[in-house]
Amino acid sequence: MSDDLGLPLESIASSSFAELLNTRGLTPTWAVPPGSELKAPEGTTILAMRYADGVLMGGDRRATSGHLISHRRMRKVYAADRYSAVAISGTAGLAMELIRLLQTELEHYEKLEGTRLSLEGKANHLSSMVRNQLPLAMQGLVVVPLYCGFDETTQLGKLFSFDVVGGRYEEADYAASGSGGQEAKAYLKGVFDPEMDREAATKAAVGALIAAADEDAATGGPDPRRGIYPNVVTVTTDGFNELAESDVASAVADVLESL
């Protein structure tokens, strides 16, 4: 039997959505003309950390094009599926496409296999997706995500960082990426406690993003006047949850008051 494109059905029933696109000749392609000076918006600082109930992930809201601020309210942290989250730094447009493809891949796998891919499997798959972006990275269009989730088998929160060639590294306590990543990690090193509750973890994440914004012009600090606050999410035994803006604003006020 075959589908309406004449392809054997057995060649289509793959648990990978990307492979399905390949069989139909629909794989997205990107190319940058040689010598062109493409200045795509760049996402900057993101972070993830463990805490008592699972993992917490956050990101600032600024995107830059060279020395210009191109977006002040960019969202950098998303649900990958019910029990994991992904945050992006680097070329914004490609990063958004990567997230949408990852979300589709995980949903496609679950529908075909009748079960969720393991957390390690999800991280490995994301690693492969980043590696496939290497030709574009060599042209300056770099995407470097962070990934975190709640492992239903071990009942533990886990987080993973990646490098530009798709290297995947499980981090024990916390991780940060983007132009302000080093400053954020330095802050987290001084305040991290794996037994923190959600409120304390939120303040730690917000403090790290504020510290990054103080040193890195590409990282946007909280802007209460405009109502711009970091995106903060948690992943626990109850699944993915995005913190209400009022909770993040309260954490920002407490951190700024203590400075």
Description:
The protein has 259 residues and is an alpha+beta fold. It has one domain (9-22, 42-258): Aminohydrolase, N-terminal nucleophile (Ntn) domain (Glutamine Phosphoribosylpyrophosphate, subunit 1, domain 1, 4-Layer Sandwich). 34% of the residues lie in helices and 26% in strands. It contains seven helices and 13 strands. The protein has helices spanning 17-23, 92-113, 119-131, 134-137, 181-191, 198-215, 245-258; strands spanning 42-43, 46-51, 54-59, 63-65, 68-71, 77-81, 84-91, 143-151, 156-162, 168-171, 174-177, 231-236, 239-242. The strands form two sheets. Strands 1, 4, 5, 6, 7, 8, 9 and 10 form an eight-stranded antiparallel beta sheet that branches. The chain has a five-stranded antiparallel beta sheet with strand order 11-2-3-12-13, with helices on one face. Helix 6 (198-215) packs across helix 7. The protein is globular and about 55 Å long. Residues 1-12 have low confidence and may be disordered.
